[in-house]
Amino acid sequence: MRNIPVDVSALTFVCVSAPRPKLVDQDTGEVKVDRNGQTVFTVGLSAADAMGRVELLNVSVPGDQTVTIGEIVSPVGLLAFPWEQVRNGEKRWGIAYRAVQIVPAGAVSSGSVSASSAAA
Questions:
Q1: Cα separation, 98 vs 75, whole angstroms
Q2: Is it true that domain 4-109 has CATH number 3.40.50.970?
Q3: Are 23 and 58 in contact (CB under 8 A)?
Q4: What is this structure's pTM?
Q5: Of 87, 86, 85, 46, residue with least CA distance to 69
Q6: Which of 1, 25, 78, 119 is most deeply packed, by most CB within 10 A?
Q7: Per residue in 92-113, is it b (16+ CB within 10 Å) or e — as a string?
Q8: Which among 60, 57, 74, 80 is positioned nearest to 19, based on CA atoms?
Q9: Do the Cβ atoms of 43 and 18 come closer than 8 Å?
Q10: Pair 3, 25: CB distance under 8 Å
Q11: From what superkingdom does this record's organism come (predicted)?
Q12: What 3-state class would DSSP assign to 14?
């Protein structure tokens, strides 16, 4: 699967949905964990560009994030990747997003994790 690094420098992100554990199966309530055994959370973000276009993204991140609804944030190491699945004979596809972490805007320093480490 191809991971595509996202240049976040020209976008403003706002948290629009609080972090919640990502479910593997909604019927059983099984929670997704990463390869290190850490719970994967989903955070809803709006991404706005200088032209006023806004997209809503659900971003998967390992571990609970300390962001709140309405807060301006920065997704560290944001990656996009295409997905496709067939469920009940119906083909679905889209673009999913994941990041190393989501921090309050301005909290990203030069020592933060890069997008290439997020792909590991």
A1: 9
A2: no
A3: no
A4: 0.82
A5: 46
A6: 78
A7: eeeeebbbbbbbeeeebeeeee
A8: 60
A9: yes
A10: no
A11: Bacteria
A12: strand
Q: Where are the domains of the chain?
A: 4-109
DSSP secondary structure letters along 40-57:
EEEEEEEEE-TT--EEEE
Whose structure tokens read 């992100």?
13
Cα–Cα distance, 92 to 8 (Å, whole number): 27
Of 71, 81, 79, 80, which Cα lies nearest the Cα of 103?
A: 71
> Any idea how long the chain is?
120
**Contact (CB, 8 A) for 57 and 79:** no
- Residue 93 identity: W
What pLDDT, on a 0 to 100 scale, did the predictor assign at position 106? Answer: 77
Residue 116, H or E segment:
helix 115-118
The model's pLDDT over 10-28, given as tens digits with 9 standing for 90+, comes to: 999 999 999 999 999 888 9
